[in-house]
Amino acid sequence: MVLKFYNTLGRKKMVFSPIKDKKVGLYTCGPTVYNYAHIGNLRTYIFEDILKRVLLFNGYKVKHIMNITDVSHLSQDEGERGEDKMILALKRENKELTPKALFEIANFYTKAFNQDIKKLNILKPTKQIKATSCIKQIIKLIKKIEKNGYTYQTSLALYFNVKKFKNYTQLAGQELEEKIKAARKEIVVDPEKKHPADFVLWFKLAGPHKNHILHWPSPWGEGFPGWHIECSAISLANLGVPFDIHCGGIDHIPVHHTNEIAQNEAAYGRKTVNFWMHGAFLCLDKEKMAKSKGNFLNLNELIKKGYHPLAYRYLTLTAHYRQPLNFSLESLNSAQNALFSLWQSLTTFPKPTRISNNYLKKFKEAVNDDLNMPKAISLTWELVKSEIPNSEKLATLLEFDKVLGLNFKKVWSNYRKIPKQIINLGKQREKLRQKKEFEKADKIRRKIKDLGYSVEDTSQGPIFKKIFKPTDLIKLKD
Ligand code: AMP
Ligand code: ZN
């Protein structure tokens, strides 16, 4: 079945097929490990996870590379502009300004990030690669760019000369003049810089970065790499030239990914990535959720408020990844109710038998059409409410869940058996009801409810159903 993705490069849906047989090279920009990820960041990682699962669903193997930024991501926020986010984290946490303390912080937030993605059922990348672990590759790539004539040096840095690169605005479709207006307002403007959109490939230990605690020797002096070169070097070194798909949030289109393309093509003289895919923002009160604006929430805060992490995953699947999603606790609540109700239905189904080809085909059509997850979710409900046998529903749902990632299998295997204790309590309640001791029978119903089950009285006797809680199936200590 044909697989189509919207390619930012070209601005339309295009048929996807991998460069090499059945193997897809996928690169996703990873976190800067200076703080916890917020749920806006996590929306982007869920979109990328769905993409990866859809590729796997289509029978492809996926080599997924993600960088971990532990140096060079400079803050653009008011009051701290131009400072390395990792150094800002050391200051915020009153830590010594030493490489050791920096790596401790980086490890701490990398671990926190991996715990978050695990709770959200995001498949772990094939490799996560720290920027500081590939300085050699970064220097090698910069040398290539330099050899091809795209760089110049000032006393502060080695720059990429954007005027030398003809296709600089191909991804964002902006005019260079527009880009200049949007160019970052640097706190220390380098007077030797030729063009406002020129960006740093290598920072020297000079000017504002004179005392940067991480530095390495290089042909341009002791210093540290720019942020954009990190992703170029890690992606190309691990996935080859060219590779299939590069992703991130839409904020990366005009600067980070535009600069990556410039670096890659300046080094290799050819197109290096076939598909560029971008996820839209998670918003709060119609504004982008961002740390700098203070309007953000972390996954653990949602858990503390009584939400299951997979309720957040479900919520993000109800909007298309290219549409902004406005976050509210009310919508999260509805998502959680919907998820729990799906889970409850599953637990009542007998062993899976055959897959419904009709539903599977419709599902595949939806996900293969640029990851139409709202359609996939509505098909899930259509299937659950349909007339086909429950055993077939379950077999089909387990297939769907390879993409949805909503723990259907775990839910079914952990909760389909009603615990003996509940059945015994049910029997006691029946006896009391027969003796018309309704007050005592109701007390037992409440006990059953406290143990996490509901009772429905039917002509064939009582039916028990699991009532799901936000703490089911997650290890909070993880
Ligand atoms: P950062 O750690 O800031 O580099 O961001 C990590 C990822 O989250 C990037 O791909 C960003 O584009 C993305 N991102 C940042 N803010 C949001 C948001 N509010 N909604 C969705 N994605 C976001
Ligand atoms: Zn990146």
The unique ligands bound to this protein are: adenosine monophosphate, zinc ion
CATH class placement of the largest domain: Alpha Beta
Strand order of the largest sheet: 5-4-3-10-11
Cα end-to-end separation: 39 Å
Number of helices: 16
Number of domains: 3
Described by the principal axes of the CA atoms, the overall outline is elongated
What's the helical proportion of residues? Answer: 40-55%
Indicate the CATH topology of the largest domain. Rossmann fold
Average residue pLDDT = 94
The radius of gyration computed from the alpha-carbon positions, rounded to a whole number of angstroms, is: 26 Å
Low-pLDDT sequence parts: none
Beta-strand content: 15-25%
- At CATH level 2, the architecture of the largest domain is 3-Layer(aba) Sandwich
Q: CATH superfamily of the largest domain, called what?
A: HUPs
Total E-strand runs: 16
- Coarse structural class: alpha/beta
Q: What does the largest sheet look like? A: 5 strands, parallel
